[in-house]
Every structure is written in structure tokens, then in C-alpha cells.
Amino acid sequence: MKKQFKKSVIVTILFLWGWHSGFSQKNTAFQKGEELLFKVSFGFFDAAEAKMVVNPEVSSINGIPSYKIDVFGQTLGVFKLFYVKDNWGSYLDTTKIIPHHSYRHIEEGRYRKHEQVAFDHKKKNAHVKLYDRDNLNVIDTKDYPIPPQVQDIVSGFYFLRTLDFKKFKPGDTIHLTGFFDKETYNVKLIYKKKEWIETSIGKFESYVLVPVIPKNKLFRGDHPISVWVSNDKNKIPLRIKAKLMIGSLDMEIMEAKNLRNN
Fold it and tell me: pTM above the 0.90 mark?
């Protein structure tokens, strides 16, 4: 039950930023060297921080130029008693904005997981390798069918930022698709409205998106999660607010460095 609860939170919260079965996608929103820092709060407590980093150098995956992107997360303050130190990563095609390789290094309490996924978009296949606790030896491999141009959990954050939100009007639905933890997920996001919000890095007009989530024992309300994305050329993910059955979970930007557009 505990593992399923944690998985539900990860899938529902983190995937909301941007999965889509698209093709070549023009990127004018982010660049190599960008860093975004977020604070994650539970109720009145600062529970964790997350950092998203685009490597300063472009990598090559099978001869294809790719951004190496890392997401780091760790608990803060009293929540360190629950010890979380995670690293999620993706090699993202600089032209098509699709992942060619992803990885997870999870340290949560005594739990450990090390995984790598190779995406073959032409063959519509994800080759998953699971490593031992020390991340030294492969202990399992398996192939899974995937939809064309599928996103992973990290690449989806950046794909969302390439979308032209000006094409949407309030009430429009964005259909999202991605592969995570051996499964393909389909999520619907409703574009709700534009709204000005204050953050640690300034005041922004933003697009407000809400996912369509079936009734469950984790969230409360008809639209328990809201996502704010800046209405500017950078399309920065600014805030996520989630109403839980007990309390609330908020994720808000604290710092932004080396943005593509000033």
C-alpha cells in the first residue's frame, strides 16, 4: 500500500508537466545550462527541494545530439527523518524533443532502485534494465511496447514548454502520453485560464492547467491539482498545488538561472 501510494503521487504530480505523442517540436523556451530550483511544501512545512538541470554541454546518444537533463530531489528539515535523495535523468533529442535514454537512481529510506531505459522510437520499444542495490550489476532486463514519440517523466517537463499555449482557449483539453515504471499512461489536462501570480523570482502571468483525475482516496475535490506555467518565452513551470485527503502538497519555483530568454 505504501509503495502504491508513493507511485500514485509521483505519476500524478510529476507527469503533469508534459507528455504528448507528437513529432518534431521547435524549442525556443530552454537551453543548455539552465537550472531551476523548487521548494516542495506539505502544509506549513518545507518538506523537500527539487532541482532541474540541463547539462552545459550537448551529449550524443547513438550519434544524435541530446540534452542531458537531471532532476534531483531531497528531503529537508524534519522530513529528513524520512530520507529521500533521488536523481531522475533523461537524454532529450535537441531537435525532436523526445527521450532516447532515461534513468532513475532512487534512495528513499532503506529502499533503493537503479534503472535505465533505452527508447527506440522507430521500433516503438522501451528496453528497461534494472540494476542491483549498489548500481553495479544488471539483475533484470525487459522490453515494453510504447506509443510513437512517447515521453519519459523528465523529458515531459521540457516538452510541455515547447507547446504553443496561445492556440488553446479556456476549456480546451490537452492529451498527454508517457512511459514510466513499465507502464504507458494517458492523462488529460484542461486549460483553465490565465492568472497573475507572485513567486520568489518575480510576478508572472501564467497559464493554469488542471488534470482530469478519477475519484480516489489520495486527492480531494473535483480538480484537486492545479499547474501554473509562465506566459512568456521561457514557459517556466512555476507552481503545482495538490489538495490531498490530509493536507496539501505545494511545489513552487525558488530560483531560475541561465534562462534562454531574458
Answer: no
